[in-house]
Every structure is written in structure tokens, then in C-alpha cells.
Amino acid sequence: MRTLEVVQTGTLLIVDDVPNNLRLLFDYLKHYHFKLRIARDGEDALRQVALAPPDLILLDVMMPVLDGFETCRRLKADEKTAHIPVIFMTALNDTVDKIKGFELGAVDYITKPFHPEEVLMRINTHLTLQKLQRVLLQKNRQLQQQNEELEAFAHTVAHDLKNPLSSIVNFIGVLSEDYLEQFDGQTLQLLKMIEQESLRSFDIIDALLLLASTRRRDIEMNLLNMSSIMRRVQQHLAPMIAEYHAHIIYPNEWPLSKGFAPWVEEIWTNYMSNAIKYGGRPPIVEIGAEAQPDKNRAYFWVKDNGEGLNMAAQQKLFTPFTRIGQSGIEGHGLGLSIVQRIVERFGGEVGVISTPGEGSTFFFTLPIRDSVSLESGEMDALNE
Q1: What is d(CA 335, CA 206) in angstroms, rounded to the nearest whole number?
Q2: Which tens digits make up the pLDDT trace of 221-232?
Q3: What's the predicted TM-score (pTM) here?
Q4: Pairing state between β 56-60 and 11-15
Q5: At what angle do helices 95-104 and 68-77 cross, to 10 degrees?
Q6: Which residues of 126-142 are buried (b: 16+ CB within 10 A; e: fewer)?
């Protein structure tokens, strides 16, 4: 018999009610440094797995009392044993039986009579895959932990930066008011620029803090009063609307949706401020909304009359620190990445539909309430 090189070793549980099959596999596999255990039926296999889970199970299909299919089903139903690879051993060539095995969670099939080298290679393949999955899971956990640590550090740094910035802004205010007559026009202009950049830094820090909080903070999803949210957004953007002479078109009614109101307000603020800054002159901004009950969501959008975006620009939009890209427009490129993070926390989607020369439509979706029937008082409260 030809000897094969085996990369992986581990504990194997061989489950078969035929002694000759057990002996054949045991005698062959013991030469490859596997730790071998045997079970004569499904119930014995389940008891052994509960006491000491093996790395892989070779499981016969046709057994009395508890056949291989039911044994596999029970193994996969238990989170403590669901990860163990199961290779079925069967004399059946029926495709339906093989499909059933895969549906139950088996990773492979070996057909009797055995070809020992094939058995060995299949065992080695799935032990290798299992090892790689464990390594990948461990790496993912490490990356998640490192990411959480970095976000916590960034949150602390961003928060601590506010104190010296506040001092700078206050000092500039004192200098501008108390020493106004002692400064020439150029010096006053420089002080004004410092103040503006400090305030802009405040905006960046607030955006970073919000970006970090969208991953770390636990939120409660509630039914939204979108009319009230939009009134606050409009009040916040009133100076910009006036400066750009923007014309805002609102929908007549809002579909019911769920979310966390302060974050939804942030979504609208980002989308609408971008539409105003990057829209036409004057900007015309159309707000839209519709229910999509077949998809269990509400669809919202902001359409501008700007220059539009090519496909390359669209693909970069929701990347942090990437700006839409018009010269002379201020921004730090965090807004859309914040929008994406928020909407994904809600279980929704974000995106853009744009054609160069025809403006852009930025959209997002929110989940809708399971039952859209409301009591009259509740509807009145939402419409206040």
C-alpha cells in the first residue's frame, strides 16, 4: 500500500455498525498518527462527542436505531458540536441521499467500498480547512479587538482636543474685542482665519466622535416623527440655505419608519448640506420619500441640480476623508461615511444615482414598523 504524506493530524471519531469497516479504517489510519476513536451507533457517537469533541467525524449513514442523518442533524443543532466536520460513509449512490446529507451540514461523502487513499485525502482536506477557519476566526477576533481599541483611543484623543481648541477660540475672542484698536486690518484678518479654522476643527472632531459612537453605542430603534426631525434640520441649515439662496422642496407626507432620531437628523443634515453646496446656482434640492412595504423598508432621497458625478467619483463617495471634489467648497470628507455607518446600524442601505450634467440623487433606507396601523392619537403625535 502506498504511503501518503499527511499534513494534518487530529482526533477522528469513526461511527459504523459493521466491524469490518471499523477495522479497515482503523488499521489504515493509525499509521498516520491520528488519535482514533470508534462508535458502533449514532447514540454512542453522540455520547462520546458530548464528553470529548473530536476534530472530525466519519459517519456511516445506514445504522440501526439512530441512523447517520439523524445523528448529523443532532450534532449540527447543538452549537457546541455544530462546527465539527462530518464526512458521511455510505454504500448508497442515490443523489437524493447525498443532497440530504449536505443539507444537514455534512462537508463530504465517501462511498463504500472504501479506497483508503481517498479517505485519507478527504480527511486531510477538511482538517486543513477547519484549521484555516480557526486561524481566520482568531485573526478576525484580533482585528476586531484592535479596531475597538483604536476607536476608543481615537475617541479619547478627539475628545481631549476640544479643550485646547476651546481655549484658542476664547483667546481669539478676547484679543478681537479687547485689543481691537491696537491691531491693523491684516492682523484682524489673520485672527479671523484662525478662529474659522479652529471652529472647522471642532466640526471635524465632532464628526470623528460621532463616527466612533455609531459603532460603539447601543441604541433603541423607535418610530420616527420625520416632520419634527426635518424641522430641526431646516433650522440648523437655515444660514446655509439663506447664503446659497437654496430652494428646498419637501414631500407632502412621510412614510412610517424606525430609527434613532438624533442619527437620522445627522443623515438629513449631511445629505442636504451636500446638495446645497454642490448643487446648481441657485441650488434646487428635492426631498423625497416613499414606503416600500414589499421590502419592509422606507426609501428616502435628496436630489440636487448640480453637475452630477461620474462612476469613478461615485465609488469613492462613502469612503472616510473623501470629498465630493469641487474646488472652493469646504469639507472634511467624513459626512457620507458617517451616513453609511449610521444607516447600516439601522439595517438599511445608502447609495447615489448620478449622471454627469444631470445632478445627483443620494438615498438611504430605513426599516418600517412591523404593523403600520396606528391609533389616531399616535398618528396625531407624529404629525405635530
Answers
A1: 11
A2: 899 999 999 999
A3: 0.52
A4: parallel
A5: 20
A6: bbeebeeeeeeeeeeee
Q: Which amino acid is at 55?
A: D
Q: What is the mean pLDDT of the chain?
A: 83
Q: Which residues on neighbouring strands pair with residue 351, listed in sequence order?
A: 363
- Say if CB 299 and CB 321 are below 8 A apart: no
What is the distance between the alpha carbons of residues 300 and 268, in angstroms, rounded to a whole number?
A: 10
Peptide bond into 113 cis (omega under 30): yes
Find where cell 483667546 sits.
Answer: 171
335 to 69, 147, 188, 216, 284: CA distances (angstroms): 52, 20, 31, 18, 20
Radius of gyration of the chain (CA): 32
CA distance 184 to 380: 58
- Three-state DSSP class for 48? helix
How far apart CA 213 and CA 356 sit, in angstroms, is 35
Give CA–CA dist 62/161, Å, rounded. Answer: 69
C-alpha cell recorded at residue 325: 471634489
Check residue 257 and report its DSSP letter: -
Instruction: Render pLDDT for 81-139 as a digit per residue (tens, 0 to 9).
Output: 999 999 999 876 666 678 888 999 999 998 888 888 889 999 999 999 988 988 898 89
Compute the Cα dihedral for 271, 272, 273, 278 and give only its sign.
Answer: positive
